[in-house]
Amino acid sequence: MDLRSAIRRALNLPGWEAIGRRALSSPQWRHLPKTLTIRERIIFSFGAILILAGIGIIAGRFYLDRTQIAPAAGGRLTVGIVGRPLYLNPVLAPSNPVDEALIRLTSAGLFRYDAEGRLIPDLAESFAIGDFGKTIDVTLRRDLQWPDGALFTVDDVIFTTNAVKDPAIRSPLFSTWIGINIEAIDAYTVRFTLPAPYPPFLHNLTLGILPKHLWEDVAPENFALSDQNLKPLGLGAFRPARFERTRDGKILSYSFERNLSSPRPPLLERITFRFFDQHTEAVSAFNRGEVQLISAIGPQDSATLRSGAKLRSSRLPRIFALFFNQSTSRILADKTVRQALSYATDRRPLLEVLGGDLFVTPLERPIPADMLGATEETDRYDFAPNHARNILEATGWIAGEDGIRAKGGERLTVTVTIPENDDLNAVATILQTQWREIGIAGEIRTLGPDAYRRAIAERSYQALLAGQELPVDPDPYAFWHSSQKFDPGGNVALYENPRADQALQISRTEFNDDVRADSYIEFQRILMADVPAIFLWQANSVSATDPTLRGVDADFLQDPSWRFGSSHEWYVHTKRVWKSL
User: Fold this and answer.
1) Which of residues 19, 34, 68 is at a domain's end?
2) pLDDT tens for each residue of 137-158
3) Ranges for the Solute-binding protein family domain (predicted)?
4) What is the percent of the chain where pLDDT is above 90?
5) What is the rounded CA–CA span in Å between residue 179 and residue 449?
6) Could you tell me the CATH number of the domain that includes residue 121?
7) Using CA atoms, how far apart are residues 283 and 281, in angstroms rounded to an integer?
8) Which of 125, 239, 266, 345 has a CA 20 to 30 Å removed from the CA of 132?
């Protein structure tokens, strides 16, 4: 007897088709198990299990298809960092990298940077440009209170900026605020008046704001001595909880808890910083699982990190190039020679000796790809050694018996000046080898720190291998305008072109980003045609994290401390949420 017949007999039904004509009574269902044989019960149970499993699979698939993984609140993080905190005060912090990192947690400015390096409002609600770019009116958010309940108003902004401008306080930011006037328009609107239009000034407004009611009674000469420098009250994502120190005052660790007064309350419940004297100590603590994030990872660290560590790379506005001093070198005054050197330079082995793509990014122009005005619409100097030989030959540089070219009795020799640095020495050595392949003799001149700085100040070099720290904007005026040719200006190539000067000046006075980008592109077209330098690489900031930490990735960082500016987005727990329709 099959299962269907057994069920029909147990229920005393005339036929299976009767189910469609009348419902089964409760007594019939109760007697069903007694009527079935063991084999029939197994078959019946297995069928029921399959039906329930199918329903479960369908429901599970429906749930997974219509939901997604999202960050969840909670969890803790321990960060390892080299150095010790001194002033968790945005007015004083830029003198110490550790302080800079910690104030990204505890303070908030009118503006901040997102993960792509763009400037976005933080404590500000909006802003307006007036008087042909000489005034900037910033409207503040009206829904914010300090953690002690006091209202956040324009008075706090004015107090903080005036503190930076006070010479008695000795803020490292003092020079960036010279000539700036600050005034209140109303309780939630502040006006900044500039002596002349200067679009990059908006980046000054990332300065963390201090609560006036807690600092106004501190005398300027005592600003750096106040206890509040280690127990700050701010509007950042985190607020101080507790710190541990030795008997002699050395801070070992500092914990920060979620700040619910912040305009961007974090997902993590707590972040604890552990401070180390040496980078190797931080790496060891990471490998033991005692910390879940460390920065300043170098190529030498990669092989020593524990299994499962996740390396995260972010580009920095820090570029390296070989700058030609045409004013002191007859050879480099010859544009053909500069072009030949550019075509003979292969960046790939340079990047490899520096650790590869994780640690450096190839660079061909003065403005990196992440920044305003980045372009590929300029002359290119791809690696082409045969072309380099041909243009030298065509302009009278003839190879001698030793393979080195000469013209009019002058040997084609280029001396590269570098500081005492293993990486830069390795790069210069590779350049020396590459250039010899086209008949140019390269010499390396290595100087100690003082002598290197003196050579730059005196512009006493033929070619200089050096780095430049670009502003976030990026505003390359200080490095390429002809007015900056001599010390303390940053135009180490002593480059001069009136058309390039004009393009740089436009970009400093025009607030429209499209117009400014066009002027930066025009500047780069002019400069690349003149070949005053060979641009080599852009530095990256690399951190190592535990794989459970997410939300940390940033394509671009203004400086390594800004990694912590997005700490409110970091998370270790997840949940599933319904997808929006």
Assistant:
1) 68
2) 999 999 999 999 999 999 999 9
3) 119-481
4) 79
5) 34
6) 3.40.190.10
7) 5
8) 125
Cα 241 to Cα 127, 332, 407, distances in angstroms: 34, 59, 71
How many CA atoms lie less than 13 Å away from 227 in the CB half-sphere?
0
| Alpha-carbon dihedral 450, 455, 456, 461, rounded to 10 degrees | -150
Q: Which helix (H) or strand (E) holds 525?
A: helix 513-530
Task: Give the C-alpha separation, 544 to 310, whole Å.
Answer: 6
Amino acid at 524: Q
Residue 39 and residue 137 in one domain: no
Same domain flag for 115 and 240: yes
Among residues 536, 525, 530, the alpha carbon closest in space to that of 326 is found at 530
Using alpha carbons, select from 263, 166, 272 the residue that is nearest to residue 215.
166
**Residue 442 β-bridge partners:** 414
**Alpha helices by DSSP H, 354-469:** 385-394, 422-436, 449-458
Token pair 């990298």 is found at 97
The length of the chain in residues reads 581
pLDDT-based confidence at residue 16 (cuts at 50, 70, 90)? very low
Could you give the angle at the alpha carbon of 476 between the alpha carbons of 453 and 128, nearest 5°?
A: 130
Alpha carbon separation from 429 to 298, 422, 451, 536 (Å, rounded): 21, 11, 20, 14
Q: Are both 187 and 273 inside the same structural domain?
A: yes
Looking at the structure, tell me whether residues 369 and 408 fall in a common domain.
Answer: yes
Q: Residue 95: how many CB atoms within 10 A of its CB?
A: 14
pTM, rounded to two decimals: 0.86
The 10s digit of each residue's pLDDT in 19-32 is 444 455 666 566 66
